[in-house]
Amino acid sequence: MTSVASVPLHDEFELVRDGLLAHCYRMTGSYQDAEDAVQETYLRAVRGVAGFEGRSSLRTWLYRIATNTCVTALSHRSRRVLPAGLGTPATDPGVRVYSDESIAWLEPLPDAVLHHDEPGETVVLRESVRLALIAALQYLPVRQRAALLLREVLSWSAAEIAETLDVSVPAVKSLLQRARRRLDELDLTGLRPEPPDLEIERALLDRYVTAFEAGDSAAIRAVIHDDFSLEAVPHPVWFKGVHVCIPFLERVFASPGWKVRLLPTRANGQPALAGYDSALRAECLWVLTVVDGRFAGATKFENPALVTAAGLPARLPA
Please, which of 105, 131, 276, 306 could form a disulfide with 233 given CB 3.0 to 4.6 Å? Predict the structure, then answer.
């Protein structure tokens, strides 16, 4: 049996921490829950390292602990959703917006929390946490979700997955079949996007920021698709199509005292914006989707903690 002293647990954990965080985020759909799961993974590893027999790599062992930590945590929780997962889009731009904290909302993952030394590996991690993918994964029962991620993202064998989930190899194959069949039933448009052109994305983002801060709906219209979608949480807002999105934004721009500042950042491997209110306090994080040179959608997450997680200040200087 491998002794505790001979296992460089802390060093190995730090090397794979980004990967563990991305894995737990794919499982939970929540940045904060993923951070908690990673911390719990480390604590469980410290307590159990004396029994580590070296039959697998330390990295595989840590992913096994992380997976089961998430499975346990999620066994009695409802899936996380975005407003689009609750029904059809609203057609009235004047619809009353209300907050609903009773719903477990999906959360974004700021790119800044993934800071692996290997650029290529960081790109892979960020591409595997696209917002559309995370939303789709939440439709899968937790064991199907775990099996699919271990197979499709980490390239584990059926035997390794079976050992992790404490099931048979035929059971793993059944879990994978059902997971793939369920995802095939969903509309996964944009799930596997083309590699991003960062110059185009940044130019689009600059135009969007200028237009939004100025309350210029015509300029926003010039950088979005006809079927542009707009979502927000915890206020369950969902509009689809410029015929309703633009009038809604115009109502927002015309509201008394309306003023915002937006700072570019990235989240879920996508362009994003940190939003600040009229008092220059962090308010929200927007995640935007680019398709064919224009924005196809924007999702607003009203949570100031996401702004600071993205490495941006909680308040801007006057």
Answer: 105
Quick check: 273 and 206 in contact, CB under 8 A? no
The vertex-211 CA angle with 209 and 213, nearest 5°, equals 65
Q: What is the pTM of this model?
A: 0.91
Residue position matching structure tokens 């945590």:
73
Predicted confidence (pLDDT) per residue in 48-72, tens digit: 888 887 778 899 999 999 999 999 9
In whole angstroms, give the CA distance from residue 157 to residue 163: 10
Most confident of 51-55, 92-96, 289-293: 289-293
The angle subtended at Cα 145 by Cα 144 and Cα 148, nearest 5°, is 85
